[in-house]
Amino acid sequence: MCKNKIISEWFELYGDDIYNYVVYRVGSMDVDDIVQEVFMKALQKYETFRKESNPKTWLISIARNKAIDEMRKRGTKWRKNMMPFHQKCEIPDHQTPEKVLQMNEEHRELYQAIQSLKTNYREVILLRGIEGFSIKDTASILGWSESKVRSTYYRACKAIKNQLRGHMDE
Amino acid sequence: MNEDLHKKIQSLPKAHLSHKQRTSIKRNIEQNTLYDSCEQQQSWFAQRVIHVTGIAAILTLVFLSFMIGVNVNRSGDIIPFDKFKMENIENLQLVHDGEETVIKEQKVIIDLLTIISDHDLFFIELTEREHQKLLTKVMEDHAEKIHIILYQNKGQGNIQQYAFMISKNGEVVLETIHNGFSRKGYKAVGKHKNLYKRIVDF
């Protein structure tokens, strides 16, 4: 099978996962461009892909690098790029976290708590929690040890709980 | 409690591509193959151009070097060091009496060899690396004909750092002609005293 066919299939299979990851990672601006760039990059670098690993893990790694580049390009911190939930905006017909979370107060608070975390915590929550990667895959994407993923995820959850408790106290 | 939070995090809504976005991206990915192969063709072409240009440049250099070598012998104005003979000096002296003739050395170690013929004074200007060999030979073969050898210490660069070796009737004397030949100048040429000694001992 030729590589463009394979990448096209991967896009069918994992396009939404990549899209979701990028939305949570960089906000809702130009997400489809970034997703496209991710698959273009995969097409370009297909020969370097080690077949024994999961394509989704590989694609998420590319997406993560693209997201980092994008944030650098924008020159602002991740949090600043996230579109606030209360902001009225024209949202296309597809689901974005902003649109969905507007409907659910609990989700909105949780989302905000995640955004306020430090980078390491956010990364691990996004991959392990939201994207549902295994500890092994999360470790592979982030280049960490599995025990680091476990402990960071634990601490990130603790930090989120503190955030949510703070909100409730207010 | 972490388990509950984990479930809550997992239940966060998922964003997904619209049909329009999906179609557009998919089409671009598939079209990119064409661009990709086009890029590959371009880079292949660019590589070939670079190779051909490189080879052409090398061939040109070889050709030019060869032509210079040929011209040297043919014109008589530029003579490779290994073919440098005392006859050349004499010939040049005869032919170009009162004029300035430049003999350019082809070897890397001698970048410039200038012969100036001026009446009965015979100046040889040399770069420093091969001076000993050449000067010694000149002195051995033609001491009686040579009145002045001007040795320029290239690294120093001004007239005060020139040494002049004067030969009169076969007797070699190390002298300074220029009034401004200073102590500094002596120092500059001091490192070549073995050469002078050899000439003086001759």
Automatic annotation (TrEMBL), chain A:
Q: Which organism is it from?
A: Melghiribacillus thermohalophilus
- Tell me the GO BP annotations in alphabetical order: DNA-templated transcription initiation; response to stress
Q: Which family does it belong to?
A: Belongs to the sigma-70 factor family. ECF subfamily.
Q: Which GO terms describe its molecular function?
A: DNA binding; sigma factor activity
Keywords from the named record: DNA-binding, Sigma factor, Transcription, Transcription regulation
- Its protein name is RNA polymerase sigma factor
> Which residue numbers delimit the RNA polymerase sigma-70 region domain?
11-75
Pinpoint the RNA polymerase sigma factor 70 region 4 type domain residues: 108-160
On the tree of life, the source organism's domain of life is Bacteria
Lineage here is: Bacteria, Bacillati, Bacillota, Bacilli, Bacillales
From TrEMBL, chain B:
- Does the entry feature the keyword Transmembrane helix, yes or no? yes
Q: Which UniProt keywords apply?
A: Membrane, Transmembrane, Transmembrane helix
The domain of life for this entry's organism is Bacteria
Q: Where would you find the membrane-spanning parts of this chain? A: 49-70
Q: What is this protein called?
A: Uncharacterized protein
The organism named in the record is: Melghiribacillus thermohalophilus
